[in-house]
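Box 3.1. Reading complex inputs
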Amino acid sequence: MQALYAQLLVGLINGSFYALLSLGLAVIFGMLNIINFAHGALYMMGAFCAYFLLNIAGINYWWALLIAPIVVGIFGMILERTMLQWLSGLDHVYGLLLTFGIALIIQGVFQNYFGSSGLPYQIPDALRGGMNLGFMFLPIYRGWVVVFSLVICLATWFLIEKTQLGAYLRAATENPTLVRAFGINVPRMITLTYGLGVGLAALAGVLSAPINQVRPLMGADLIIVVFAVVVIGGMGSIMGSIITGFALGVIEGLTKYFYPEASNTVVFVLMVLVLLVKPTGLTGRAA
Amino acid sequence: MPELKMAEAPAVKPAAAPVLAVQDLQAWYGESHILHGINFHVNAGEVVTLLGRNGAGKTTTLKSVMGIIGKRSGSIRFENQDIIRASSDRIARMGIAFCPEERGIFASLDVRENLLLPPTVRPGGLSLDQIFDLFPNLKERLTSQGTKLSGGEQQMLAIARILRTGARFLMLDEPTEGLAPVIIQQIGHTIARLKSEGFTILLVEQNFRFASTVADRYYIVEHGKVIDGFANSELSANMDKLHTYLGV
């Protein structure tokens, strides 16, 4: 039973990253109509940002949680202003190719300087150690990742579904021309939305640094699964992205316990099944 | 119904200059040249109607004024400022509000969110209470999804939400299209009421019987040009011509 709970916890942690990343992808796709293949590279940059902050500037983990998403978010907004904005109205393939190219360049630059091995990032003092829950031992940092990710996901959901800013965002996703004709600066909103989605990826990168080490290809490995999660959940709904992210992490964890050989493929098998039965994804709306 | 009160009356109007003056407006959708030199003006407090057949260029004219047609040339002056190069968000913030033909109610927003969506561009817009006086139906449907409303209610919502913004110049694109006579009547009353409150309205209509109940002046649009214009008082004298123009 200990092993089952341990795998469930691993599943929840992976699910946290899936949720944070697929949430950002869904928000970006809604506003920019771009499938952001650079998402994994920006997640990696978030982790590296935390690493640099700690080892060069001596800035700790807690500040990194705030600073890394802002720095990477600004980098993302520069990408959007200088490159992505010119693709609006074009076929998805262009956005896919451009962001994939950007991802390769970013990862290539980091690999050039840091190789492929992982750099260590220590768990902050306050989150070291563990708790005995009776039925299992819970490393505090891992519990923190799950709870914090959930809070961030729900805060993002609240921002988009329940605030005036979110109403602008949802309306502009449907009909940007009309929203602009009401006096809202839609191009600026698109830039900020890309910054928000990318910032969420960077935040996931910081959370992941103490668990998975900091590696140039950490995002490239993860993003393939995240895209499968997005396909399964569908692009239409924010809550759908969050729930699908956590659920698939748990399903993966359970598979690792009951049938480890399938743990790396179960998400893709589910993706194929969903595509066969409901091509728009579980919570997606028809285009 | 209680009296509508505007918090602030429109600022001092230049006596001679029209609120909107359009000269030699040309516009393109991609490669196709749609407007070939539109000329008209709208004075403060007037209701002016663009009449014409389907595809004549009426909607394109409104969209050009709003700045949502990619390629346009000529001159569009609003309150003595040239807006032909301005972006649509800037034009909206100058005080022009647009109610599109397809109504543009957002499916992912409920009625309240739809109503509150357009930001205030000037002080003096209608309050929610004043809007509910005009359109009592909306008050009962505030939490419904925007597109779950009936066609008439959606049209009321589309007009109501631009009244909140404080814009004093409204462009309404076929507000009566596809609606039941009783709803058309209600929209007619609303336009008359807004006019009496000092709003300036540019209306696009196919239904000139409806237009004749609210309009001060008419322009006839054909093949992307304004080919004729007359005042409401000259309507009966122009009836034969009008039938030819509109093919009714």
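In summary: The radius of gyration of chain B is 17 Å.
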